[in-house]
Write a structure and sequence with these properties.
Layout (H helix, E strand, L loop, with lengths): L1 H23 L8 H28 L6 H14 L3 H25 L14 E5 L2 E5 L9 E4 L9 E3 L4 E4 L1 H4 L5 E3 L4 E2 L4 E2 L4 E5 L7 H15 L6 H30 L7 H15 L2 H20 L2 E3 L2 H8 L3 E5 L5 E12 L2 H12 L5 H10 L6 E7 L3 E6 L2 E6 L1 H6 L14 E7 L2 E12 L3 H10 L4 E5 L4 H11 L3 E3 L4 H13 L4 E5 L5 H6 L2 E5 L5 H6 L2 E3 L6 H35 L5 H19 L8
């Protein structure tokens, strides 16, 4: 696709260069005006037709004075005064600039799936003792559905089988599977963790948790107006002003000659000046250098593992004053690790629990087994208590390991302050007596603290954490990272409310997340940043910026690169407009010829492009 996008500009460029060379060496067959006109007209068509088509379509919609119209008028004017190479160059450079930016956007969206792929495509309905597969839209409230371990719940329902554990990270971001008791509500999007469960459907598919999240994404995307690049806003004023001045350049002297008989009016002279004025006024420097600057910024960011999906998001990132992070998978690894073991004999306790958990794929079980580093203990008669934990015989002693609720169920008393600890715990009892506790925590990423520090250094005034994990755990992480505010126990709706509150306060908000539950706030925030390497497809698709390396410190790098790119863009805007206004005034006074016009157009464009390329070579 990239080869095809450059094919037309390549043809025009080859013919333009060939034409200039033949004119320079005075090729005899190329000396005819007719031959030159036909040659450059053919060179013009591959790049010019598309722009003129855009100008026409914009005019039909009411946007007569678009940059496409100015490009078309200026290039036709160049043809009218015999500056054929200039006419081709105007369109050629414009098309190259637009192609470069389109490539950047397309590359940023590679390998990103559709949002709708998250929605479960089937439901297993239990009818008269048999299981029938139907689409979620065919299932009605009151129907009984079955979900196997590892499957995603297709519809909101009431749990009618025994207590069961569900992975709720897709909806809440919680790092620990949640145990839902019989009669509790299970939301679409959750994943059955370790047993077959049956649910009584309570809502139709179009009102499920998944449907509501997708609807929030759609509404948030509609509410968030994308930033426009300067060239389009500028053209709405600049283009009609330039065309009006060109017309006045011909009309005003004629009217003056009617009032002053001593003033000799020559239509050819003033028409020639008007066309020169149009050639000078063509915003070629802006048209080339601005997309190139954004492309350079996008390229520089991509080399550091940051993908911007468009130049407008680079612009938006420069205005960010508040960065809000999700916790699990964004600031933390999403992997559990044993942080300490409390008990009279910690090594014996850890070895026994590891022996019991060795056959499980649960994240907590894997962390305990890894911490035990092998061990010779052997567990027998292992029994699962769904939603609570496990019981087993280890070296002739009966062990119960799992939640505090398991100890209560077994009639084992334990220290009551365990209910208030922020870490995840595995409570242990041996022969009916409390033996100790294993404390686990989701470990921070190596650069999490650096991310907050660098954001403050870049001038970001506020850094917050929003998470579905319990408040005590979120507060602990916030203290370690020294963030300004933290909120836990949040569903997607809660995160949306906080982002809306910040925006009402006039903040420019960047939200950084990685889960499906983050999609609504990624779409609603001024700049949505997704962790791409391990993040969900929905988050990556919804976001405006993707961190490929999963390093939160790259958010600060994105801010820095965006601001550097914006500085270069502003330099080019001031320089290009300043020189063009000066030469246009000289042209109206008859003091600027085509050489000045060429400098004001091509020369300024070249200098602006050289300035724009600085962003490519910034190795910092």
């Amino acid at each position: 696709m990239e080869e095809r996008s450059f094919l037309k500009p390549a043809v025009s460029l080859a013919m333009l260069v060939a034409g200039v060379v033949m004119a320079a060496v005075d090729a005899e067959w190329f000396s005819s005006d007719t031959v030159r006109l036909v040659w450059y007209a053919v060179a013009y068509l591959p790049v010019g037709l598309g722009v003129m088509k855009e100008a026409w379509e914009c005019a039909v919609k009411g946007d007569v004075f678009s940059e496409f119209m100015l490009m078309s008028v200026a290039s036709i004017g160049a043809f009218a005064i015999g500056e054929y190479p200039e006419a081709v160059a105007v369109m050629l450079f414009y098309c190259i600039g637009e192609t470069l930016q389109d490539m950047a956007v397309d590359r940023a969206r590679d390998n990103i799936r559709s949002l709708m792929e998250f929605r479960p495509d089937h439901a297993s309905v239990v009818t008269a003792g048999t299981v029938v597969t139907k689409s979620p839209e065919e299932v009605r409230p009151g129907d009984l559905i079955e979900v196997k371990p590892g499957e995603r719940v297709p519809l909101d329902g009431e749990l009618v089988s025994g207590d069961a554990a569900f992975n709720t990270a897709a909806l809440t971001g919680e790092s620990v599977p949640r145990t839902i008791e019989r009669g509790g509500e299970v939301l679409a999007g959750m994943i059955a963790a370790d047993s077959v469960v049956r649910l009584r459907v309570v809502r139709p598919a179009d009102q499920s948790a998944v449907a509501r999240i997708l609807q929030m994404v759609e509404q948030a995307s509609e509410r968030k107006a994308p930033a426009e690049l300067f060239i389009r806003r500028f053209a709405r004023v600049y283009t009609p002003a330039v065309i009006a001045l060109a017309v006045l350049t011909v009309v005003v002297p004629w009217l003056w000659s009617l009032a002053d008989a001593g003033f000799a009016y020559d239509f050819g002279t003033w028409f020639y000046r008007a066309l020169i004025f149009l050639v000078i006024s063509c915003p070629c420097a802006l048209v080339i250098s601005i997309p190139l600057s954004y492309f350079g910024g996008i390229g520089a960011a991509s080399r550091q593992g940051v993908l911007f999906k468009g130049g407008n998001y680079l612009d938006a990132m420069t205005r960010v004053d508040t960065v809000v992070f999700d916790k699990t998978g964004t600031l933390t690894r999403g992997e559990f690790a044993v942080v300490r073991v409390d008990g009279a004999r910690p090594d014996e306790l850890l070895a026994a629990v590891a022996a019991i958990e060795r056959g499980s794929n649960h994240p907590i079980a894997r962390a305990v087994v890894a911490a035990a580093k092998g061990g010779s203990a052997v567990a027998d008669d292992i029994k699962e208590v769904p939603g609570y934990g496990l019981t087993a015989i280890v070296e002739g002693r009966r062990w119960a390991v799992g939640t505090l609720k398991l100890l209560e169920r077994e009639g084992v008393s334990y220290p009551k302050d365990l209910a208030d600890v922020p870490e995840t715990i595995v409570a242990c009892a041996k022969d009916g007596c409390y033996e100790g506790c294993i404390f686990l925590a989701d470990t921070l990423k190596a650069d999490a603290a650096e991310a907050v520090e660098r954001l403050h250094a870049e001038g970001v005034s506020s850094v917050e954490i929003l998470s579905g994990d319990k408040q005590a755990l979120v507060d602990k992480v916030a203290r370690e990272l020294r963030v300004d505010r933290s909120c836990g126990d949040l569903l997607p709706e809660g995160k949306v409310r906080r982002i809306e509150e910040l925006r009402r306060q006039g903040r420019c908000v960047a939200f950084v997340g990685d889960g499906i539950n983050d999609a609504p706030v990624l779409a609603l925030s001024d700049v949505g940043v997704a962790m791409g390497a391990l993040g969900s497809d929905m988050a990556v698709e919804t976001a405006d910026v993707v961190i490929q390396t999963d390093q939160p410190s790259k958010v600060a790098a994105a801010v820095r690169i965006a601001r550097r790119t914006r500085r270069i863009v502003r330099q080019n805007i001031v320089f290009a407009i300043g020189v063009k206004v000066l030469v246009m005034l000289l042209g109206l006074a008859g003091m600027a010829n085509l050489w000045a016009a060429v400098f004001a157009d091509v020369g300024v464009a070249l200098l602006a492009v050289m300035n724009a390329t600085r962003v490519f070579f910034n190795k910092k």
